[in-house]
Amino acid sequence: MQPAISTRSASTHRSEINSGRLLSLDFFRGVTVAAMVLVNNPGDWAHIYAPLEHAPWNGWTPTDLIFPFFLFIVGVSITFALDGKKQDGKGIIGKIIRRSATLFLLGFFLNFFPKFDITTVRIMGVLQRIALVYLFCSLIFLKTTSRQQVYIVCGLLVGYWLLMTFVPVPGVGFANLEPETNLAAWFDRTILTPAHVYKPAKVWDPEGLLSTLPAIATGLIGILTGTWLSNRNTRPVAEKVAWLFASGCVITLLGLIWNGFFPINKALWTSSYVLLAGGLAMLGLALCYWFIDVNDYRRGVLPFVAFGVNAITVFFLSGLIPRVMNLIHVTQPDGTQISSKEYLYRTFIAPPFADPKNASLAGALTFVLIWFGILWWMYRKNVIIKV
């Protein structure tokens, strides 16, 4: 399925809100993707501020919330995109499958490039997980009611907890949550094999197969949130926001409580992590919805909306371009060669900064600002690339 370019002017957003589209959702998606680009592209990977790194294992940092926020947003978007299409049958299901396959293949290409070695290529990844979550959440949304979706979320979270904490790991003999000996790691290296998992982890994958099950629950929490905010819910907007905010607080608290015996862990995508991130995402969207869609606050919103409406495009290209730049080498005065990416960082960004962490952050911010310029131009020219 080829990406399609559609046109939509900024001035049409108000009518889209009235028809069910949320400007706050595009804004929230844009903030999330901008943060994703920021943490994925530091100037120097050896010097990063702690909040911009993932937690080593158990626990969480702000960076650990970015990916589940995006999957939550995928769920909310499904509600608005597929509402009213449940009767379309095989036609809409075919479109869902084609879009999922496109997302998966884009992610696979990023892993494949530039070595193109099929024997060692990583199979899973961020876009691949987005593809699977989108596929299963879309089908669940089309075939179930909101009540049934709540049951599925509970079943996935409790079931995953039971699997990870009670099922003995083959070859180990007992259930555990250690990096290389847990059930999800065993599943990854058994199905994917060590040659095709995340290379730094060697024998497991942080976007692996078994941990995709609770990730689907993250998307379903987004679907339930989208259903609550949709036009089908005729409650007053103030009541919608109040209940969404209260629900976010409760779910976040449940995640913190569950953390006591099933630790919050992004790599394992534990059930407590799903609740923590899902609850905080609900709070974030509730605030955005109240200020932007209800109270018509617009100052500083549209630049992030520009990020949000071309989210997959910027994520894919922001991953591809650094890889291309690493293939282009520059010869230094001493005869050694460095990549063009490192050359630009050392020459134009790092010198003014005494602290290497500040320089690294400046490199990341520069990359984000360049994308802000590109995406703002695209938005003003009504260029929106849909995958």
From TrEMBL:
Segments passing through the bilayer: 65-84, 96-114, 120-142, 149-169, 208-229, 241-261, 273-292, 301-321, 361-379
InterPro entries: HGSNAT_cat
Annotated keywords: Acyltransferase, Membrane, Transferase, Transmembrane, Transmembrane helix
GO terms, molecular function: acyltransferase activity
Keyword Acyltransferase annotated: yes
Presence of keyword Acyltransferase: yes
Organism: Spirosoma flavum
Name assigned to this protein: Acyltransferase family protein
